[in-house]
Amino acid sequence: MAEVDGDEVRRLRAEGGLSVAQIRERTGLGRNRVQELLRGVPPPELTRRPTAKDELRAEALKLRAQGGTVPDIADRLGVARSTAYLWVRHVPLEADPAVVRAPGASWWRCRDRGRCIGGWRGRCGEWPVEIPTGNGKV
């Protein structure tokens, strides 16, 4: 096969709107070599990431900042709960860290640990007296 130069690869991208895979198929070059030759050339529209849900993602962040839970956000925006979670997992539900409980805090340090078996409220029905900080100290 004849030697393919960078101008030919860039022409295929600009005029033909071909993807890297399509250029590789036509030229016989490897993926890394094609990407190296295309550095600085914008990708064609057909290979760009769709941005259809960017507005929904921004709305999900607003709802979370207002105190919305993941199931509420998912229902309101019409997306899966897993998608809503991925969008807002870095935003805490409570802005005040003193209010945020560590996992299992409700049964870890209640007044009567002997009867407290688990759940958000232990079997004894008490909320925790102390909230663990996560480093083993209360």
Automatic annotation (TrEMBL):
Record's protein name: Homeodomain-like domain-containing protein
Domain of life per record: Bacteria
Organism of derivation: Micromonospora mirobrigensis
A Pfam family of this chain: HTH_23
InterPro entries assigned to the protein according to its UniProt record, in alphabetical order: Homeodomain-like_sf
GO MF terms, alphabetically ordered: DNA binding
Lineage: Bacteria, Bacillati, Actinomycetota, Actinomycetes, Micromonosporales
SUPFAM superfamilies recorded: Homeodomain-like
Keywords attached to this entry: DNA-binding, Homeobox
